[in-house]
Design goal:
Layout (H helix, E strand, L loop, with lengths): L5 E6 L7 H14 L3 E5 L12 E4 L28 E3 L2 E3 L1 H11 L4 E6 L1 H13 L3 E5 L15 H22 L2 E6 L6 H10 L3 E3 L7 H13 L5 E6 L6 E2 L5 E2 L5 H13 L3 E5 L11 H19 L5 E6 L2 E6 H4 L11 H8 L7
Helix pairs in contact: 1-8, 4-5, 6-7
6-O-phosphono-beta-D-fructofuranose binds next to loops.
């Protein structure tokens, strides 16, 4: 087994509460094992531009456990292999440049903390020969191969608090309030925050919804005297639009506005919509996310020391296990339609519009 003396760590993709807790755990555990840690700024840019690099010691990560964001910075820019890289030192092929700088820096391994996009890039570099370990990151909770990711609990807690607050005005004004939460492909945040916040309707990408079924649910609530309703919609949720010729079409973008406008038209009720957006990614991580992030960081260093490269740290309660990156990239963990929380929500009368 090669001796590991120096490793790089980077964060890529959208930020998520808990990234700093992972960095902190990596730096502390690696340093205690006699391994130096180099922080690479702005994702893989740290392996492109020589000035985007700094040594990280335990002193550098003091006080960051409770901070959102990432002290290393991050970028979210699609496929970096597509274009040549222009730097003050010349124009390079992206992949070649990263490989060259990795060698020049005499790094023994990399820890790449990121979502589906970053893990896919990491996997490409692993195949090119960089020994690396991935740490999954997403508030959407949709990374395949791990039951949970740090950031999700914080996002759900924030969204639940927002729904609690919206109940007040919904009830006072007898309105329909439509709350849009993140979740491009998967409805984990919508489902969990919707149930925790006592929503009446939850619309998720996994279940295309019908306006007439949502309207029926709202009318039923009016008949029972509730006269207000809370709808939680994931940004990727889509209605099924019936065309005169009998076909179906799916509408993209502005999930809450579209849903709210249409429900106002169909019910005649006062309707408002709120998009929680990036507020869900901000703020301090919850205790659960700090703990999970710390566990991920420590496990990633352990895998590096054991030369378990090309793997992603995954949460399989009660254990953390290595999962091959090749099994993870290109796949999305959707909410299973037989998930017990979804079933319970249905049994409690929450509508999914289907
Ligand atoms: O992948 C996490 C996520 O929060 C998605 O739910 C959302 O669509 C996206 O990031 C937003 O990314 P950006 O910060 O690039 O707008």
């Amino acid at each position: 087994m090669p001796t590991i003396k120096k490793i790089g760590v980077l964060t890529g993709g959208g930020d998520a509460p808990g990234l700093n807790a992972v960095i902190r755990a990596v730096v502390k555990t690696a340093t205690n094992a006699g391994v130096a840690v180099i922080g690479l700024e702005d994702s893989f840019d740290g392996l492109i531009y020589p000035d985007k690099v700094r040594v990280l010691t335990p002193k550098d990560v003091r006080g960051i456990l409770r901070l959102g964001g990432t002290i290393l910075g991050t970028v979210n820019r699609g496929n970096p292999f597509a274009e040549p890289i222009v730097t003050p030192h010349g124009t390079f092929n992206y992949g070649d440049r990263v490989m060259e700088v990795f060698q020049q820096m005499e790094l023994d391994a990399l820890i790449c903390i990121g979502g589906d996009g970053t893990l896919a890039i990491a996997y490409e570099f692993y195949k090119k020969g960089i020994p690396l370990v991935g740490v999954p990151k997403t508030i959407d909770n949709d990374i395949y191969g791990t039951t949970s990711c740090f950031g999700f609990d914080t996002a759900v807690s924030f969204a639940t608090d927002a729904i609690d607050r919206l109940h007040t005005t919904a009830e006072a004004h007898r309105r329909i309030m439509v709350v849009e939460v993140m979740g491009r492909y998967a409805g984990w945040i919508a489902l969990h925050a919707g149930v925790a916040g006592g929503a009446d309707v939850i619309l998720i990408p996994e279940i295309p919804y019908h306006f007439d079924r949502v309207v029926a649910c709202l009318r039923q609530r009016d008949e029972r005297g509730a006269r207000f309703s809370i709808i939680v919609v994931a940004e990727g949720a889509r209605p099924v639009i019936e065309h005169a010729h009998g076909g179906h079409a799916e509408r993209l973008g502005g999930a809450a506005k579209f849903c709210g406008d249409e429900l106002a038209r169909l019910t005649g009720k006062e309707t408002r919509h709120v998009v929680l957006g990036h507020l869900q990614r901000g703020g301090a991580p919850t205790a659960f996310d700090r703990t999970l992030a710390t566990r991920f960081g420590g496990k990633a260093v352990e895998l590096v020391l054991r030369s378990q490269f090309g793997k992603m740290v995954a949460n399989h309660p009660p254990d953390l296990v290595p999962v091959p990156l090749g099994e993870v990239v290109g796949r999305t963990k959707l909410v299973p339609l037989d998930y017990d929380l979804l079933q319970t929500a249905r049994m409690m009368g929450i509508s999914f519009g289907d």
